């Protein structure tokens, strides 16, 4: 055993390291940076590992995780891949913001999912991609020109006031299995 009873710092000169075992693990400083090397470096703190605010953890040269005591920022030079083996959970009342202003957001209140868009914005579904309901028996889909609303059984249109059919072509056709039987 080595018992240190120094009343001040123990100073290891720059570029002289402290090695462990067969020298595969080493702690060494150069007067500016401290390098800890080893196959795996295991932190086994009995409480938190604390990294000060505005000091980040970097990976290579393009990725960084840093907090400022309020916000946590994850920066990547390319994609950020989440590879959880279970769900990625966002709590109720906390949204996923898709722009810096917060006007484009997806959020759940525990019952409903709300999709917000910016002023005069739209939710765009690409051509030939439909929105289906239940077992996909009901579908709304557009091809960039025509809109089709289909149901595998009864289709109900119910309005609290009027139903307006406005056809610039001048005709409204009534069909049965693709065959026209009337028009207005």
How do you describe this structure in short?
This protein has 184 residues and is mainly beta. It is 0% helix and 31% strand.
Secondary structure blueprint with pairings:
Blueprint: E1 17-20, E2 25-29, E3 34-37, E4 57-59, E5 63-67, E6 72-75, E7 96-97, E8 105-108, E9 113-116, E10 131-133, E11 138-142, E12 147-151, E13 173-176, E14 179-183
Antiparallel strand pairs: 1-2, 2-3, 4-5, 5-6, 7-8, 8-9, 10-11, 11-12, 13-14
The value of Rg in angstroms is 31 Å
Instruction: Give the biggest sheet.
Output: 3 strands, antiparallel
Helices, by number, come to: 0
Mean pLDDT: 92
End-to-end Cα distance: 101 Å
Order of helices and strands: EEEEEEEEEEEEEE
Q: What class would the helix/strand composition place it in?
A: mainly beta
**Residues in helices, as a percent range:** under 10%
| Low-confidence blocks of residues | none
Shape verdict: rod-shaped
Walk me through the structure.
The chain is an all-beta fold and 184 residues long. Helices cover 0% and strands 31% of the residues. It contains no helices and 14 strands. It has strands at 17-20, 25-29, 34-37, 57-59, 63-67, 72-75, 96-97, 105-108, 113-116, 131-133, 138-142, 147-151, 173-176, 179-183. The strands form five sheets. The chain has a three-stranded antiparallel sheet, with no helix packed on it. Strands 4-5-6 form a three-stranded antiparallel sheet, with no helix packed on it. The chain has a three-stranded antiparallel sheet with strand order 7-8-9, with no helix packed on it. A hairpin with a 7-residue loop joins strand 7 and strand 8 (105-108). The chain is rod-shaped, with a radius of gyration of 31 Å. The model has no long low-confidence stretch (mean pLDDT 92).
């Amino acid at each position: 055993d080595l018992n240190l009873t120094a009343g001040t710092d123990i100073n290891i000169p720059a570029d002289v390291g402290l090695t462990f075992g067969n020298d595969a693990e080493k702690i060494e400083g150069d007067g500016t940076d401290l390098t800890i090397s080893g196959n795996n470096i295991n932190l086994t703190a009995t409480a938190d590992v604390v990294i000060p605010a505005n000091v980040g953890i970097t990976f290579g040269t393009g990725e960084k995780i840093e907090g400022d005591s309020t916000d946590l920022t994850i920066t990547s030079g390319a994609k950020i891949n989440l590879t959880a083996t279970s769900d990625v959970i966002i709590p109720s009342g906390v949204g996923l913001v898709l722009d810096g202003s917060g006007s484009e957001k997806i959020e759940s209140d525990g019952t409903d999912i709300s999709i917000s868009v910016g002023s005069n914005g739209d939710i765009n579904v690409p051509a030939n991609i439909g929105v289906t309901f239940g077992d996909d028996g009901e579908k709304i889909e557009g091809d960039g020109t025509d809109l089709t609303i289909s149901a595998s059984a009864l289709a109900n249109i119910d309005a609290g006031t009027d139903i307006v059919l406005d056809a610039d072509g001048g005709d409204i056709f009534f069909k049965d299995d693709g065959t026209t039987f009337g028009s207005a």
